Amino acid sequence: MLDLAAIKNDLNDTYDDPRVDDKIAAIITRAEYHIREICAIPEDDELTPSEEQLTRDCCRYIYNEVFAAFESDHMGTINGCRARRLAAGYAASEGGENNAG
Asked: Is residue 74 pLDDT above 50, yes or no?
């Protein structure tokens, strides 16, 4: 999971308010779940730097109440991340089958 302080910095949130911190923590959870789902990232895998940046960007869109535009604005990055994950999963499954024979 992304660090609350880092996301607050990205959002230019420079004050301490527990209610806002709780809201941002919920946004981080929502954004990470969304990115994992659309990019086919297993729950127990670490995010790559590009996936982490995509999650940070998703947090900004949610925070600023423009989430509906997120996917269309980042479709190229989303497709690239998803393709790499699916290719890695395919390669891993093919490697396992070849070793079984």
From this structure: yes
Distances (CA, A) of 56 to 30, 49, 91: 11, 10, 28
| Residues 23-73 pLDDT 10s | 999 999 999 999 999 999 999 999 999 999 999 999 999 999 999 999 999
What is the separation of C-alpha 37 from the centre of its chain, rounded to a whole number of angstroms?
9
* Cα separation, 30 vs 35, whole angstroms: 9
Q: How far apart are the C-alpha atoms of 36 and 38, rounded to whole Å? A: 6
State both tokens at 54.
């995509």
Specify the DSSP element, H or E, that contains 84. helix 75-100
Exposed / middle / buried, residue 31 (Cβ in 10 Å: 0-12, 13-18, 19+)? buried
For the chain, which residues make up each domain, given as ranges? 4-100
